[in-house]
Amino acid sequence: MLNIEDLHVSYGPIEALHGISIEVETSEIVSVLGSNGAGKTTLLKTISGILNPTRGVITLDGVVIGGMEPSTVVRHGVVHVPEGRHIFPNLTVQDNLILGGYFGTAAQNSENMAFVLQTFPVLRERLRQRAGMLSGGEQQMLALGRGLMGNPRVLLLDEPSLGLAPIVTSEIFAIVRRLAKEHGFGVLLVEQNARKALDISDRGYVLVNGSIELSGASGELRENPEVQKLYLGGRNVDARL
Amino acid sequence: MKKYAPFLALALALLIPVALRQKPSLVYYLNLSMIYAISAQGLNLLMGIGGQISLGHAAFMAIGGYTSAVLVTVLHVPFGIALLAGVALSCLFGLVIGFPALRLQGFYLAIATLALGNVVTDIIKRLSITGGDYGLRNIPAPSLFGFTFASSLSQFYLILAGLLLTILVTRNFIRSKSGMALQAMRDSETGALAVGINASHYKLLAFVLASAFAGLAGVLYAHSVSYLNTGNFGLDLSINLLAITIIGGMGTVWGVVLGSLLWVFVRNLMGTSLEMLTGVLFGVILLLVVLFLPRGLSEIGYRISGRLRSNRQRG
Amino acid sequence: MWTLVFRGLATGSIYSLTAMGIVLVLSTTNVMNFAQGDMGMFLAFIAFALLMRHVSYPIAIVAVVAVGLLLGALLERGLMAKVRKTTSHLGMLIVTLALTMILEGLAGYFFGTTPLLFPPALQGDPLHVFGAILDRQDLLSLAVAGVVVFILFLVLYRTKIGIASRSLAEDEYAAKLLGIPVRSIYIFIWATSFGLAGLAGVMVAPKLSLEPGFMIVIQLKAFIAAVLGGMNSVVGAVVGGLLLGVMENLVAYYVPQIKDSFSLILVVIVLLFLPEGLFGRRAARRA
Hints:
Number of strands of chain A: 10
Strand content of chain B: under 5%
Radius of gyration of chain B: 20 Å
Oligomer: heterotrimer
Helix content of chain B: over 70%
Mean pLDDT of chain A: 87
Shape of chain A: globular
Order of helices and strands of chain B: HHHHHEEHHHHHHHH
Distance between the termini of chain B: 16 Å
Number of strands of chain B: 2
Largest sheet of chain B: 2 strands, antiparallel
Order of helices and strands of chain A: EEEHEEHEHHHHEHEHEEHHH
Low-confidence stretches of chain B: none
């Protein structure tokens, strides 16, 4: 569904991504692991249209979306939920969600809104509150819900676990997985929390200094000693016990 | 060849009043240009080097001019002392205004300087010594060491001396430690702090120097134009000084001379019927400069000299 | 005293209209528009020209507001968008200063610099209500401002484009990611802002004489009102304007010596000690 081929992205004279190729299929959750500065956010920003690639192609079901404006990318169904959530603190929860459905018809929006509120009941409770008053986990749900309002086919999630308690993270990840499997979204998940990411994803890529070093099924990656050493704390805890 | 260029230029400049002695009005306009250049130089230091902004710069000219004018006309103080007093008082106000300016940035500094500039001219207008709405007339010509600079021609040399002084100070300041510090701060305040440069110190210095130049310009203005009215030192002039600085080339040493020559001569070439269009023309030029020639007219000079140099190397 | 308050509210409503325009542009596009006042002046001159050709007053006002909307849209699309690519925010401030030079020059050229008398919208004796003397033009200003503010808030809080504008003001990056058409919103904002300028100009012109510089002081007061209210808050702009108007009038009556400098000194104090103003939420230090 989402196809990235030989993507090169530069900041001025400095190249940040050196020929990345990634695929995300329907109902598939794909994680991208890597340390800070490896280029994970750059990757997502390029897909969503904030940055332009210097080389390479990004397509969604064959339609080229690389190099397009963010508004075009969103309309094609690729929604970027940014790192740190970036909800609008002084707008109400409802306003935030409405903005997610900026391009939808009234009918689509009310349908999507009902769906989002059903998936995240806490948002219904807080519908008219200022978004800034929500807790971290609730804000992440709002950010996700806002993304869902746009009728996405692919969700780009940037570090959704950032700043959240483990229980909340698990809850959110579970919802993401359920949504992907039941509704056919593709999910490209960028995460520092490698363990959780590999737990819910089907496949993964490991990004090191702008290049993909490893890729494969999540199960395989979890067993991979390199991955364990660098991202999983260096021990296969289950095996030891 | 290049080393002798400034001396050549200076010699030519000194001959200008002689060459134009049949047209003293032309010299008068040149004098005005130089006065505004002196004032704009202060703004250039403040904005181009110091990275600050001021929309009240004309007020410093008013302070310098009125101080000197009042001292000479009412208290019969000799011009030389009045000049120093005008500059000093201007500096003092520069310091006073510099302090609050330290805590403000960008837009907010613009508003604050706008407001303070207005306060200053309001207060000046209110003092009865200054002639209120009617202004101060018949301000005597400058006289130093017994010699009176009565004509535009003689005033030319006095004002030229002032201009050269400010240019020298600016050039040395840019290269000095303070100048470098300011430029570092202008480009990245956090970066500068990281290297241990104390911001406030240098920003205040920029304000004081800027007001000193403006004060000097004000004094020279008062005694060559012979008439002062607070209405002439309002937002209009402040904006025009800003335009002169930018059009000429912010951060350069000679930019303001180019800018003010352009302004004074365009204004007078337009004549009275098209007078209002000068503002339009100048505004359009400013727009074009911001859009296409961000380093101002000086950029044209650099490009020409650059091409000359490379041609010489090639030939 | 209530007369003073009422008159202060009337003047304040003009400040509010102008300040709203300034704050709308500043909070969404991060440009401090120093041409707000002069655009109002220019539009007032156009209204004057229309009135002199016996166009009816209401039509003249509507026409001028429409021209303001159009000019704002054109300006953003034709000029600001280009400038934004190559200059800093301070550079854009200077672009607005260049605009003031152009607008004042054009007004002076076409209409001369001798002050002209702008006819008031409502003739007739002032009304006496509860012991206060209410001038009719002032009443009109207040009423018009009230309606406009109401409509504007309706748009900002209940329409998609209004909510999107506010979101741009909060977090441009997130808004972009959602695909919100940033450039269209900029056009909407600038158009609205200049429309407000036209309205303010036409409402206040009868009280002052019409000349190229007549809105300069109003604009300065509008900036002060915006600072008072918090430069990122449209609510603040409205409240700040009204508050400033009332305070000024009371000061002018009871302490006439500082009448001219009052607001100027007030703004410096506010900038130094309460930079967020009454309703603002971000630090005033950010350029």
